Amino acid sequence: MDKLFIHLTEQEQVECLQVVEQSQLSARQIRVSLSEATGYGLGRQIVVLVPSEQVILTEVAVPTSNRQRQAQAVPYLLEDLLADDVEQLHFALGSYQDGKVVVATVAHEQMRRWMERLAEAGIQAKLMVPDLLALPFSEEMWSVVLTGDIAKVRTGLQSGFSCDIENLSVLLEQALEHEGENRPQRLQVTDCRDSKKVTLDSILPSGVEYEQARCDEGFLPLFARGYRDESARSINLLQGQYSQRERLGKLWRPWRPAAALLVALLVVQGVTASVEYQRLSAEKEQLANQVERNFRQGFPEIKRIVNPKLQAERGLKSLRGQGGGAGLLALLADTGPVLQGMPDAQLQGISYKEGKLVLGMQLKSLQQLDELEQKLKQKSSLSVEVLSASSRNKHVEARIKIGAGQ
Q: Does pTM surpass 0.85?
């Protein structure tokens, strides 16, 4: 994956290097403000290199290979070796081998400053590495780079130190003596100082073999060439509370109550919607049953109900009659006003067949039946025939057939 290296120093502008994967020839070095560097990192893996003089690299024996337990134990194992309170320090773990774990230690205050600068520029870095761990390295050769008045020395895959150039000779000689027979055969020294009045021979321990590398392109391309697989050859400082997962957790934490309330609201709405759905479903089924009952009462001759609405429309069309017949609606329209004008006459039943309307009536007397017959016959559009009439319990029950007039 293409990379963007950012050397994050205290200066306002930062050195950046765009590198196409496996193609150092296409590297492009720029010096811009940190906010401007954001645009150059689009689609690239961003590797932030921080000054190793702000970081202490050491190793400590731990009784477990479990990373979580190592992270818990390391601060207390190093407590006596550090001047600052361990509560004020951040510990990033490196490789674990032969019962010892490599540890990079940096002040929380410094980490927060770096993180705040990146956040203000809109840079979401996944890797933050001490710059000396990006120097070229081999088992036979230590790397030394001189920039300004600072010397950076890489002595192992995840080990090294930074110091003032004037103290380099003493510290380097001590480091070489500590290695004993495992000391490197030579040093590779890259002198990137603007002023070289002080010679390398006066800076380095006497009797140490070294080869000098060119620094025509600056120190950042040197870091890029030395950087390889970050999981094996360097230490990512973005661990623990500074890891991307933890940072996202901090952003998410204030929203948890609101999210929980939203989830509860959605659950309540879901339950309410489910109850309402069940209620409407029951009501729909009840209405469907009622429609079917009414349909069967109105059209008893139809045995199979498929589409009540369509079948009812067809039945009503049939009831209205075809051709010149008056039809049911016409007969009802002429008969209705007459019946409304006789409130004592009660309609007990009605049927329609072959274009004729048959009314079952209950009246007070035969005189009222005659009156009703006469009023209906006054309608020229109607033909009236009393089919039957009988007296029962002080009232008269009659059946009257009404058809279209001739």
A: no
| 322-404 homologous superfamily | General secretion pathway protein M, EpsM (3.30.1360.100)
- Exposure string of 329-360, with b = 16+ CB inside 10 Å and e = fewer, is ebbeebbeebbeeeeebeeeeeeeeebbbbbb
So where are the chain's domains? 3-242, 254-319, 322-404
Q: Is-contact 142 153, C-beta < 8 A?
A: yes
So what's the pLDDT on residue 100? 92
DSSP secondary structure letter of residue 405: -
Its CATH architecture, for the domain 3-242, is 2-Layer Sandwich (3.30)
Indicate whether 325 pLDDT > 50: no
Task: Say what the alpha-carbon torsion angle 247, 250, 253, 259 is, to the nearest 10 degrees.
Answer: -40
Give residue-wise pLDDT tens across range 237-282: 999 889 876 555 555 567 678 878 888 888 888 888 988 999 898 8
Instruction: Between 2 and 8, name the one with better pLDDT.
Output: 8
Q: Do residues 372 and 400 touch, judged by C-beta distance below 8 A?
A: yes
Angle between helices 327-340 and 366-377 (to 10 degrees): 130
Would you state the structure tokens that stand for residue 165, as one six-digit string? Answer: 């150039």
What are the pLDDT digits (tens) for 14-61?
999 888 876 554 577 888 999 898 888 888 888 999 999 999 999 999
For 309, left (φ over 0), alpha (ψ -120 to 50), or beta? alpha
| Rg for the chain, CA atoms, rounded | 50
Sign of CA dihedral 317, 320, 325, 330: negative
Beta bridge partners of residue 64, listed in sequence order: none
Tallying the residues shown for the chain, one arrives at: 406
Q: Which of 164-173, 211-220, 297-306, 348-357 has the lowest mean pLDDT?
A: 297-306
Closest CA to 248 of 90, 126, 66: 126
Residues 205 and 220: their CA atoms lie apart, in Å, by: 26
Q: What is the pLDDT of residue 164?
A: 92
Which letter, b or e, does each residue of 227-241 get, where b requires 16 or more Cβ atoms within 10 Å of its Cβ? beebeebbbbbbbee
